[in-house]
């Protein structure tokens, strides 16, 4: 049975595509590497030793849509990174908002 708990850190932002692919290598990148490259994430702890780090941010169409719910809002980008018990990236996924 998997046990999940979430600990939220400071507000984080999903990195741009280039930063994701530049800083995440499956089987190589560690938690320390990713924290240094991309900063704090929302952390979900799974079975003993496994973690998923989530970065997300609201993509905006215009500066006004940051404050008002206008049609210019573009949706939310989310990057989820799963670490194994050794603290190394096992897999990651990027969810882009629908266009």
Relevant terms:
32% strand, globular, 99 residues, 2 helices, 15% helix, alpha+beta
Question: What does the model show?
Answer:
This protein has two helices and five strands; from the N terminus they run E-H-H-E-E-E-E. Strand 4 (75-83) and strand 5 form a beta hairpin. With 99 residues, the protein is α+β, with helices and mostly antiparallel strands. It has one domain. It is globular, with a radius of gyration of 15 Å. Mean pLDDT is 76; it is low at 1-11.
Overall tally of domains: 1
**How much β-strand is present in the residues?**
25-35%
Q: Biggest sheet, in brief?
A: 5 strands, antiparallel
Give the count of helical stretches. 2
Using the alpha-carbon principal axes, give the shape: globular
Number of strands: 5
The low-confidence parts are 1-11
Cα gyration radius (Å): 15 Å
Task: Tell me the span between the first and last alpha carbons.
Answer: 37 Å
Helix content estimate: 10-25%
Q: Indicate the structural class.
A: alpha+beta
Overall mean pLDDT stands at 76
Q: Looking across the biggest beta sheet, what order are the strands in?
A: 1-2-3-4-5
Identify the quaternary structure here. Answer: single chain
Order of helices and strands: EHHEEEE
Provide a short characterization of the protein structure:
By secondary structure, the protein is an alpha+beta fold. It has helices at 17-23, 31-38, and strands spanning 5-7, 42-45, 51-59, 75-83, 89-95.
